Structure formats: structure tokens, C-alpha cells
Amino acid sequence: MAKNSSLGLRNRSPKDEFYTQIADIEAELRHYRDQLRDKIVLCNCDDPYESNFFKYFAMNFNHLGLKKLIATCYDGSPIAGEQLSLLDLPGVPPGSERLAYKVEITEVPDANHDGAIDLLDVESLIRNNGNVLTLLDGDGDFRSPECIALLEESDVVVTNPPFSLFREYVAQLIAHDKLFIIVGSKNAITYTDIFAFIMENKMWLGHGFPNGNAFFRVPESYRDTFVDGVFNEETGLVKFRNVGWFTNFDTPKRHEVITLYKHYSPDDYPTYTNYPAIEVSKVAEIPIDYDGEMGVPITFLDRYNPEQFTIIGQSISLAEPMSKYARKEDYMTSEGRFVGGTGKFFTPRGNNKHQGVYQRVVIKRIGAAS
After folding, report:
1. What is the pTM of this model?
2. Which helix (H) or strand (E) covers residue 318, if one does?
């Protein structure tokens, strides 16, 4: 069978496989249960049956009231066939265990009649229904024509896409006007195009991983590339703290008001040297009585309420070059190193010195005086 592998290889990092734990999936998706009812759910960056996203939706298919579940696997997946040998399935010829395929489920019956839906029922469905699992014509890349056709058929996309392709992946979802709940690096927030979607209220952060810690299974082939404390040999999991859930589902969390109690004073909230906004180093310290623009840490986006604040932009695009305001030797980072001033806000520190701050989101209170 001819395969088009060019898309799958283009721009994909060779070490871009992080498999989400089912407990983390359950913790996030419990907030969207009612909104998933009667929907066609697509997991288009997953290995059907091997993927915990697929397992979650397959086992909860009836409970969630799904209309249909679609999951696709790309050609050459490093974990395909680990838990369910494709060679045992109807319609899958020998030598095809690493080829791209899809699973489409419209019902999950209680095959073993034990009164509950579990993986044994799902496995029985896959093994005994030749229409459930079929090979794809292409390589299973989310940008391929047949995968785009599956996207167009679907209502909701839920998955952990390749981090190296996150911008392109999100752009495709928004271009096709799809609802989504996906995992991504929080570093993506600073990307110009991703930040633009957040500013335009086309996507936002979900509820997040418990205690801010995300644990992923990775292929054995590159576990040794992680430093101690990131990869745990006992659990076989890699830990990240800068990973979150991104969505465009509306939830009560998005409308929770941040309680403000601090009052503005020029001494406590200095104005940046290279942009007319004040520095607010902690989200909890946003002043209740300041009407102008404020620079806050990007962690603000975890609590962003579009009814309370407007996002103006981010420092990487708003900051003017420090060369307009001071000599190079007079501005420095928080660590005291002298650096260039491009894309960074600086605050005055006396004696003509200026100190850089970390990446900031610029906001303004809604209802504040113009």
C-alpha cells in the first residue's frame, strides 16, 4: 500500500512522543462531561487502544452519551501494537502492525455481560467487528487529506498533539471551527500566533494538571535523554511542570472573578522604562484601583476572566528597545547580567540602572477609565 510520509516527517521532532496518563485525562475531562454529550469526538494524534485518550472515551462512551468516537494512528508509531496486536484483528494483513489506521466506534456493548463497560468489551468490539478498525490510505498525519476529512466530520478534538507542531495543529483546529481540549507546553503561550488566539478569545487554558505536575510515558528509546528528577525509573514516567490543557470550551472557571485587594502606589508598582504600564509581579497583587495598563506574569492566563480584564498584548511584542532609553551597560536582568533589551520590560532601579523582568502579559481592567 502506497504511503505519503512527507507530511508526517516534516517539522516533527524525532523525540515528540509523550503519552498522557488516564488519571490526568479523567481529572480534566470531568469538567466537560455535559458538553460532550451527543458529540463526535476525534482523537487524531493517538494510537487507538494504546492511547489513554482512546481508552477513556471508549470505556465511558455510553456514560458520556457520545455519538461517535474516532481515533487515528500515524505510520510508524513507536508504541503501536504494544497492548493489542493488530495482527489478530480482522482486515489487517501481516506486516501492517506499524501502519496508520483508524478506529471508529458508534456503540460499545457489554460483550462479556458483566454489567460494566471496560477494556475487555472494547477489545471484543475491535476484534469481532471488521468495520471498526481499518487501515488508512495515507500516513495518518493530522494534515493529510483523509485525516482532515475526519476532522471535518467531528465535533470535538481531544488529544495530546506533537509539541513541535503545536502551532500548526491549533491553527488547523481554529480554521475548521472545532471545539477542542488538548495538551500543550505552556511555552506555546508566548508564540505570537498562539497568543493572538488567546487575545481573540478563540482559546484559553483549561483546569490544568493536578498540582501543576504532568506525568507522561515515553518510548524507551529516549528515556535516557532526560536528566535526573525528570524521568523516574520506578514509574517509567517523565515529569513536566510547564504543560497545561488548552481549550475553547466555556466553563465556570473562565468566569471566576479574581479578588483584588491591593491598592496602587508608584513605589509598589513602578512604571516600565520602555513601555507605559506598571509592573505587577504577582497575579494576587493586581491593584484594585489602577485604571491603566499592567504587566503581569503569564500565570495570569490560568485565571484570566475576559469579563474582568482585557489583554492588550505581551512584552515580547510591546516592549520598545532599551537602547532608546539607556546605555547598554545600564540595563540588566534580574540576575544582574547585562543584556539586550529586545522584547523585555525593564523597571528603573536607581542610579540610572534598569532591571529586566520575565515575560509579561499586559492587561487592563474592564470598566477602567480610558
Report:
1. 0.86
2. helix 315-318
